[in-house]
Amino acid sequence: MAASMPRTSVGTGISQEENDASSVGSLSDIDHFTNAQTVGRATASDTTSHFRLDENQVLAAETPILDAASDGLMAQGDIPQTPILREGISTSPSNLETQIDNLSLQILLKQVDLERYSIHYNQEAVKQGRWKGWRYGFWNEVNSGLALGGGITSVANRGKYLHKPGGVRRRTQEGANIVPMVGSIIAASAAGGEFGINLMHEFQAHQRGYGSNQAKQKILALRGEINGLLEKRDSLVRVEASDPTLAGRFEIDQIEGRVLRDMRDQKLQQFERFHLAKRRQYWFQQMQYLFDIAKNVTNAVGCEQAYQSLHKRHRYYNGNAGVLFVVSGGLTMVGPVASRLFGKVMVEQQRRSLRGITRTDEDATLAQLKSDHAALDQLTRSGKIPAEKVDVVLNRSAVYANGEKQFENEIRKSESANARAKLVATQNIGAAQYVGGSKVASGILFILPGYDSRYNTKGFRSDRATNNDLFAAAVVGLPATTFSIIDTLRINIQGEIARQKQLKAGTHPSQLAKKRLQELDELEASIKADMR
Questions:
Q1: What is the mean pLDDT of residues 293-306?
Q2: What's the CA gap between 252 and 490, in Å, rounded?
């Protein structure tokens, strides 16, 4: 009996698999953390700039009574024309505008940090080696090749003696079972090795600060910092609204605040996409490796039992072998489906754990960012605001447009990858059903003569029935094993062709990540140069 193990496309990344951690705390814990980052008055150490006070300015943060009084006047709409320094920040028109602009730039810098971390996380988490797919594919090809060799030997040896079963060469037939057993042991070892390599990469990512829980805590902290800056900016914009002479500036600053929030939301959602994709990839691969180990081990033991039936001259062992072959075939059929389902379950768990980070941003969409950005551009070009403010906002509008395009391209690529993933998954599942089903059929043909007492005796009738059934089992396995060899080769060749096309077009994920990181470095330098 020769047994074959199918290649299930688990070695080269999620784009070829699906293409396919614990909570950070309760919502109340996250609220507490976020509020601690964002709520409260700014002190002198928090402020971006310090300005000299004159006799008409009052440091409200150090005089809570006057601060409360000014709040009351603001509520009544009776705001004195004399500028008031609230929360340690001057509200004179020039200083107020400078501080709002600087806060906008600080928010952009934090968003750059957030996106940069997300990209590095995407590179470091569940890292896939250059030759992972070829390496794992090679050992599966060795397994299938040995299984095919054993199957051909069995067909040739038993086929010669269908009408004279006593002539079957026992030593040859023993070898026909040992050869695929060795192949299955090699394949199981390869799956165990890849499982361990993934664990090692997971540990290395954690050491570099890109572990799953570490990443969620990092993003949560950055979100808190961004929200804190947004709150400071909103407080200044509210002061700006109290001065009729700043009406034009107030309107544009208000809309720009919405754009900044939309950008924050999109960057949080970007991390969520990266994180969920990586978790799905990791758990799918690990579960598939476990299935590969199980199906290869059971197949190896089944081959050993088939060998024992010849070596010990007791056909009962054929029944044992048949049961193990059926189990191996069943695992082959179930593995791709169960692995994907397990990956989806784990992703849903991770999605729930991320709600503490993105729950206030779940309704944000790219359409909202586009709408707010368009409103900002329209107002900027309306001629209702000071020219110097127009220049500042137009410069930042280019940043917003770049981010908008980046998010749009990323979402489109994600949708395209998901479509390819479904096609590949369908192909892999279909191949597994065929190969696994053939293994089950072969196993049944072993069980029939092995456990039927009528065939566990010496004699022409029992010899011929056993030889015929085991010959048929070997015949059934040959086309499935051949298909497995061809399909594994197809998967790797198609993956390599796609990779080379991406590299040539400059669209390989590593190239896109490198390019975007360079853009973020340039953007960061430009933002810092604009800060006053």
A1: 96
A2: 57
| Coil, strand or helix at 85 | strand
Between CA 392 and CA 380 the distance in angstroms is 10
For residue range 362-399, list pLDDT tens digits in order. 445 677 777 777 777 777 777 666 666 666 666 677 67
Better pLDDT: 334 or 60: 334
Q: Is 2 helix (H, G, I), strand (E, B) or coil?
A: coil
What pLDDT shows up at residue 78? 39
The C-alpha atoms of residue 528 and residue 530 are separated, in whole angstroms, by: 5
Q: Judge whether 303 and 1 are in contact, CB under 8 Å.
A: yes
Task: Classify the C-alpha dihedral 462-464-467-468 as positive or negative.
Answer: negative
Residue at token pair 């900044």: 260
User: Is pTM, for the whole model, over 0.90?
Assistant: no
H or E stretch covering 272 = helix 247-311
Residue holding tokens 């299930």? Answer: 8
Confidence of residue 55 (pLDDT cuts 50, 70, 90): very low
Give the number of other Cβ atoms within 10 Å of residue 295's Cβ: 30
Q: Considering Cα of 208, then 213, then 214, then 218, what sign does the dihedral take?
A: positive
Q: How far is residue 81 CA from its own chain's centroid?
A: 55
* Residue 432 Cα distances to 393, 442, 480, 482, 527, angstroms: 57, 15, 10, 13, 53
Q: Are 104 and 395 in contact (CB under 8 A)?
A: no
Which comes out higher in pLDDT, residue 471 or 84? Answer: 471
Phi-psi region of 356 (alpha: psi -120 to 50; beta: other; left: phi over 0): alpha
pLDDT tens per residue, range 258-271? 889 988 988 898 89
Q: What is the DSSP string of 106-137?
A: HHHHHHHHHHHHHHHHHHHTT---TTHHHHHH
Residue 121: both structure tokens together:
């996380």
Give, in order, the Cα–Cα distances in Å from 255 to each of 140, 259, 367. 58, 7, 15
Listed residue (407, 453, 121, 415) closest to 264, CA to CA: 407
In the Cβ-directed half-sphere of 326, how many Cα atoms lie within 13 Å?
13
In the numeric block, which tokens belong to residue 180?
Answer: 């695929």
Q: Residue 425 has what pLDDT? A: 67
Based on its alpha-carbon atoms, the radius of gyration of the chain, rounded to whole angstroms, reads: 34
Q: How far apart are the C-alpha atoms of 318 and 316, rounded to whole Å?
A: 5
Please say whether the dihedral angle defined by the alpha carbons of residues 500, 503, 506 and 509, taken in this order, is positive or negative.
positive
Sign of the torsion angle spanned by Cα atoms 506, 508, 514, 515: positive
Report the pLDDT value the prediction gives residue 49, as an integer from 0 to 100. Answer: 34
Q: How far is 91 from 89, CA to CA, in rounded Å?
A: 6
More confident residue, 425 or 246: 246
Beta-carbon contacts of 144 under 8 Å, excluding residues fewer than 6 positions away, are 4, 5, 7, 183, 481, 484, 485, 488
Q: Which residues contact 353 (CB under 8 A, 6 or more apart)?
A: 21, 22, 23, 24, 216
